[in-house]
């Protein structure tokens, strides 16, 4: 990575989680001198997950994990956010209450973590003169709409999760237009890949269940669709958004491909049987509140303004993810 942030100081909230730890591994491989501060309450990601990511990074030359600073704290506490932004050049705000189901179970927690948390980080960035702010958003901001989803679609969130992420996008827009912080909101597709052992989304959950010998659970009839993006492609989109000169923009970051949950389950079943000799069963359960039926993204804008395009296809990404979960299972 080249540009003003090559040797600058990064703050990554939620940096011990799946996306954060994968981003850190990429940054250290690109530039071992990169200085990274992590703000994480360790409610999902752990210190061990961070250590695992650093081992991944260590495949690169001269990685210096001592340049990583971990601050255990919560984005709902403004004083913590303000202190963590001191001396920082770019913020990647990944910390969140993730997923539709948890937001339905506890809408207030979801709002405080996602809407108030985003506001706290933006205000802390303003007070510390941080120039670049990347916000992890979601296609859930759109709600139920005829896909492909794109940035001009009217947002009508179905779930509290979608509403709280939309609030974060709105504050990012306001802080760019009022205060000049170059904010970029990235609406991630359904991300999967290595280091995702704690991830609650469908691919990671299916692999965990399969290796445990349990039945795969599909909510509804399995015909609901999502846009599945491999972690390396998503991390590259974050890096491109930091390198870019855009501000106040929203981008769909996915693959422009629609895949049903049944298709994903079928691919995983075949992988497990072919590569591990394990037969996997499926059970169907009632649909969940707040879930949308169809969702995939038009990524044309990200291609034009960020130079982004996905490079890892679904079959290759699933094989890599399978190998990671097999390694974790064999070590147990």
Descriptive report:
By secondary structure, the protein is an alpha/beta fold. It has one domain (9-192, 227-257, 291-312): 3-Layer(aba) Sandwich (Rossmann fold), CATH 3.40.50. The chain is 43% helix and 17% strand. A seven-stranded parallel sheet has the order 3-2-1-4-5-6-11, sandwiched between helices. Strand 1 (9-13), helix 1 and strand 2 (35-40) form a beta-alpha-beta unit. Helix 1 (18-30) runs parallel beside helix 2 (47-57), helix 1 (18-30) packs across helix 8 (231-243) and helix 5 (107-127) runs parallel beside helix 6 (160-179). The relative contact order is 0.13.
Classified by CATH, the class is Alpha Beta
What is the number of strand segments?
13
CATH topology: Rossmann fold
**Overall form:** globular
Structural class given helices, strands, pairing?
alpha/beta
Distance between the termini: 36 Å
- Return the string of H and E elements: EHEHEHEHHEHEEHEEEHEEHEHH
Strand order of the largest sheet: 3-2-1-4-5-6-11
Domain count: 1
| Gyration radius over CA | 19 Å
Question: What are the salient characteristics of this protein?
Answer:
332 residues, alpha/beta, Rossmann fold, seven-stranded parallel beta sheet, 11 helices
What layout of secondary structure does this protein have?
Blueprint: E1 9-13, H1 18-30, E2 35-40, H2 47-57, E3 68-72, H3 78-84, E4 90-93, H4 100-105, H5 107-127, E5 132-138, H6 160-179, E6 182-188, E7 190-192, H7 202-211, E8 216-219, E9 225-226, E10 228-230, H8 231-243, E11 249-253, E12 259-260, H9 261-276, E13 282-285, H10 300-306, H11 314-331
Parallel strand pairs: 1-2, 1-4, 2-3, 4-5, 5-6, 6-11, 7-10, 8-13
Antiparallel strand pairs: 9-12
């Amino acid at each position: 990575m080249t540009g003003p942030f090559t040797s600058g100081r990064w703050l990554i909230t939620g940096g011990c989680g799946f996306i954060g730890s994968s981003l850190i591994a990429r940054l250290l491989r690109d530039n071992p001198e990169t200085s990274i501060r992590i703000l994480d309450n360790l409610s999902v990601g752990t210190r061990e997950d961070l250590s695992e990511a650093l081992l991944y990074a260590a495949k690169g030359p001269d990685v210096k994990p001592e340049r990583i600073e971990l601050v255990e704290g919560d984005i709902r506490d403004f004083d913590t956010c303000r202190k963590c932004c001191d001396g920082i050049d770019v913020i990647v705000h990944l910390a969140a209450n993730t997923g539709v189901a948890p937001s339905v179970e506890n809408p207030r927690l979801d709002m405080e973590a996602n809407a108030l948390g985003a506001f706290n980080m933006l205000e802390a960035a303003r007070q510390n003169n941080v120039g670049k702010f990347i916000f992890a958003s979601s296609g859930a901001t759109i709600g139920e709409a005829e896909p492909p989803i794109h940035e001009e679609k009217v947002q009508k969130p179905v779930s509290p999760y979608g509403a709280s992420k939309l609030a974060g996008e709105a504050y990012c827009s306001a802080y760019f237009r009022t205060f000049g912080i170059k904010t970029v909101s990235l609406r991630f597709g359904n991300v999967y890949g290595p280091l995702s052992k704690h991830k609650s989304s469908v691919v990671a959950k299916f692999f965990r269940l399969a290796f445990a010998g349990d039945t795969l659970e599909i909510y509804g009839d399995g015909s609901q669709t999502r846009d599945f993006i491999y972690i390396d492609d998503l991390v590259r989109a974050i890096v491109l958004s930091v390198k870019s000169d855009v501000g106040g923009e929203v981008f769909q970051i996915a693959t422009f491909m629609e895949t049903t949950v049944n298709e994903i389950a079928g691919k995983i079943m075949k992988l497990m049987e072919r590569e591990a000799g394990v037969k996997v069963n499926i059970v169907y359960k009632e649909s969940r509140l707040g879930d949308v039926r169809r969702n995939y993204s038009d990524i044309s804008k990200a291609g034009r303004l960020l130079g982004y395009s996905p490079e890892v296809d679904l079959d290759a990404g699933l094989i890599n993810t399978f190998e990671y979960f097999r390694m974790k299972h064999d070590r147990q």
